[in-house]
Amino acid sequence: MIPRRLVLGLGAAVTGGLAAGCTAGSTAGGGQPTTKTLTVGFVAEPANLDFTRTDGAAIPQALLVNVYEGLVKLDQSGAIVPLLAKSWQISDDRLRYTFELVDNAKFAGGAPFTADDAVFSIERVTKDWTVSLKAKLDVVETARKTGDHTIEVTLKKPSNSWLYSMATRVGAMFSRTGVDDLANRPVGTGPYRFVEWKRGDAITLEANPDYWGAKPGLDRVVLRYFRDATALNNALLSGGIDVISAVLTPESLGQFADTARFQVIEGTSTGEVVLSLNNSQPPFDDVRVRRAVRHAINHQELLDTAWAGRGELIGGMVPPSDPWFEDLTGLFPFDPAKAKALLAEAGATDLKVRFRIANLPYATAAAQVVKSQLAQVGITATIEPLEFPARWLDQVFTKADYEMSIINHVEPRDIVAVFGNPKYYPRYDNAEVQRLFAEADAGTEAEQVTKMKEAAKIISEDAAADFLFLFPNLMVATTNVQGLPQNVVSESFDLTGLTKT
Is position 299 within any domain? Predict the structure, then answer.
C-alpha cells in the first residue's frame, strides 16, 4: 500500500509539586522518586477536545498517537506501520482488509480494546462524526468482527489512500463506553492518558500505567498554550518550559545560541502555508484575477521577510515528502507587469478585497508582505485578523465568508480534501481534477503518482490558491530533552519517543 502525513504549539509550565527540572530516578528529601515531567509550548489552544466534531489540527496535535491510537500510524519516514493492528492482509482485488489486532491493549479506565471497539470506531466516523474529514472513510462498505481480535473491512472500490487515512485522526480507536464527553474527557489506548485541562492555560497528560506497549519515557507531559511569541520565548529562557514546539518568530533564534543550554531542531514538514482565494465569489471566481495574484507575489522576498528565509518554496499543494511531488515554482514567476495585464483583461482594476487571516504569527507576518505586494499591482487588501481557532474556523473555514485568507494546512496529504471537494472553503470546483483524484485512488501505485501529479499541476495552473511556502519544522528545546523529530510527518505532536534527563 501507500508509503507515507494546523496549528503551532507551545509548552506548559509545571505547577504545584511538579518542577520542570525533575528527573526520574533522583529522590526528594523524603527518599521518594521525583516525577519526570516535560513541558511543551504550543500556540492556538483547542476549542475543545473532540476532533470528531471540531475541525482544525490543534486537537489531534495534542491527542493523536499520545492518547488516541489507530490501527496503524506513520513512522518518521512517513511509512505506514502497525499500531493497534499488529498485522493486516489485503485481498487480491484490494477490496478487503483483514486486521489482526493486539490482544493486550486497554483503554484508560481499564476496558479492554477488542474487535468490537474497532468496528464501532470505523462505523462511527460515517454515523456520528460531523467534521469534513469524515469523507475519508466514505469508501468503506462494511466493517465486521471476525474474531475477538480480528476484523475485516470491505471497501466499495479499491483505494490507495484508505489505509493512509487510517493513520490520521479518522482512524482513531474509541471505547464503546467512552464517547459520552469527548469534548472534555478523551479516552484512548495510548501511552498517555488525559488528566486535566485548565482552559486558557494547559492540558496535562500522564503516563498510562496500563499501557500495552513500551513504557513512555516521561511520567507527565504538560502542554501549555501561549498567544504571544515573546512570552513563549521567555518561558523557555526562564526554565518554565522545556520545548518550543514550533518557533513563532524565526528571527528570535539568536536568543537560544547558548548550545550548553539549548538545541535547535530544524527540518521540514508537510504544512503548506496557503494564500486561500474564494473561488466562488468575485473577484476570484475569475481565473485571470487569481493568476494575477500569483504573478504579483515575490515568493522568495515573502519568505525572507515574513519567515527569515526558513521554509521552502514549492509552487503547489504537495510537499516534497509525497511521491507525487513536482516543483511547480516556475509556473508563476514574479511578474507585476503580467499581473497588471491580467487584471486589465479581466476588467478588475482598483480591486478591494477582504483579507481575513488567522491571528497566528506566520499568517500575520505573511499577510503584511502580501498586502504590500498586491498594492503594487492595484489590489487593496484590508487585513482582518480572526481569533484562531474559533472565529477563523467559523467565518472562513465553515461559512467561506472571505475573499482571501492565509492558513498553514498541516493535515497530511490534504490536497484532495482541499481542492477535490467543491464545498471545502476555497470552493474550488473542477470536474477534471475530481476525476483525476478518483482515478489516482483506484489505480495502481504508479497510476496514482501520475494522476496526482496531473491534478496538482492543474490546481496550480488554475491558481486555485497561491502556495506561499512549505512551513519548516523549527523547534527549540533544552539540551536535556531527547527524541525530538527533525521532520514533521503527521498531524500529531508525537510524544512517544521523547525522554528527558
Answer: yes
Q: How many CA atoms lie within 13 A of 74 on its CB side?
A: 30
CA distances 274 to 58, 141, 247, 267, 406, Å, are 18, 34, 19, 19, 6
Residues 415 and 295 in one domain: yes
Give the list of residues 6+ apart from residue 212 with CB closer than 8 angstroms, or none: 102, 104, 105, 106, 113, 189
Mean pLDDT for the chain? 92
Which residues have C-beta within 8 Å of that of residue 206, sequence separation ≥ 6? 192, 193, 195, 219, 220, 221
Looking at the DSSP bridge assignments, the partners of residue 445 are: none
> What per-residue confidence (pLDDT) applies to 344?
98
Range of the domain at 103: 67-171
159 and 285 together in one domain: no
Gap between the Cα atoms of 150 and 106, Å rounded: 16
- Per-residue model confidence as pLDDT tens digits over 213-262: 999 999 999 999 998 899 999 999 999 999 999 998 999 999 999 999 99
Q: What pairs with residue 352 in β-bridges?
A: 380
Environment class of residue 73 by beta-carbon count within 10 Å: exposed (0-12), middle (13-18) or buried (19+)? buried
| Chosen domain end from 150, 171, 192 | 171
- Could you give the CA distance from residue 267 to residue 197 in angstroms, rounded to a whole number? 30
Cα–Cα dist 285/424, whole Å:
15
Determine the pLDDT at residue 7: 35
Q: Considering only CA atoms, give the Rg of the chain.
A: 23
Chain segment 377-386, per-residue pLDDT in tens: 999 999 999 9
Which residue from 352, 342, 411, 421 is spatially nearest to 380, judged by alpha carbons?
A: 352
Please tell me the pTM assigned to this model: 0.88
The total number of residues written for the chain in this structure: 501
Question: In this predicted structure, what is the pLDDT of residue 29?
Answer: 44
How many domains does the chain divide into? 2
Q: Give the separation between CA 352 and CA 368, rounded to whole angstroms.
A: 15
